[in-house]
Structure formats: C-alpha cells, structure tokens
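Researcher: Next sequence.
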Amino acid sequence: MTVREHKIVVMGPLGAGKSTLVQTLTRGKAVVTEARNTDPAVGKQYTTVAMDYGDIDLPGGDRLRLYGSPGQERFSYIWPILLAGAEGAIVLIDGSASKDSTLAGQHLKAIADNAPGLPVVIGFTRCGSTDDPVQPHWQDWLQDHAPHLPALPLDPRDMAQAITTMDLLMSQIECNAMAAAHE
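Model: Next structure:
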C-alpha cells in the first residue's frame, strides 16, 4: 500500500478565515506565523505574515498537509511558492465584504498563473444564516471570475463544515487522479 501525502493550500484575503480553518482541521495543532497587524484599514489585531502549517493523518495512512497563505497583496510573492506541488486549494472569501474591496480575484489569478488546472473550492465565510447565504453580488462575482468552481458557505470554526469543504476538494483531486490514470 502506497502512502500518499496531499498538499492543500488555503488562500484568500486578509480576515477571510484561513488561519481559523487550518486550526479547526488540525484541532488547534497548526503552526501559525501571526504578527500584530499594522494595516489600520483592517479591524484585525493579528495577521499571518509567512504561512500557517498543519498536518493530519488520514485513515489508511495517508497524510494531509495544510498550508495557509498570508492574505495581503504585499505577501503575494509567497503564493507561488506555496502553490508549488499542491494538489488542491481552498480560497476563502469574506462574504460580508464588498466585492470591490476583495483580493479574492488576485488569489484565483495566482492559482491560474502558477498551478493551472489545480482543483479549487471557494468557501464564503461570514455569510450569516439566511436562506441564501451567498449574497447576490457574490453570485455575480462568481459568474464573472469562477463560474466552473464549486462554492459554498463556510464557517471555518465549524469542524463539520470544514470537513465538508475538504471532502469536496478531495473528491475533485481523486477525479483528476482517475482521469490522469486513463490518459
């Protein structure tokens, strides 16, 4: 039996919940590189300045390696480094934010430029508890920027929702592996 390691990158703008998702999935055992936030425009005390890292042993001996990227554009030089060798990515977007103020499109572009064809799932955080959790302006944004990518509301603190998101991504990864085996 071959043990596989799965490298997954969690990307998205500052404050979207990347560190929280990595911490949730690793049950609080991830390594984080947070420093005091110096951007007064963002109401967040700390921010990731290098990457978050956590790993999880999966049933059957496989291992999941999670890398949380910094969200600010000034750290965009690290995005290609983190994407190298990745099997998939989760892009988190703060659903309560204005679509005009997000860097989510830049994160998707970094994936397209550095890891074309990489399986990606988009998670909308901070959506609230409405019947239609992804706001209409975000639905329009998805049609313009990522019409083929699966997107779902996600509370990164909720283990069940975090696992559902990972299951969706891992299903895409497995489908790609099966398709590649038949080429």
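Model: The mean pLDDT is 86. The beta strands are 5-11, 34-36, 46-48, 52-57, 63-68, 88-94, 120-125, 151-153.
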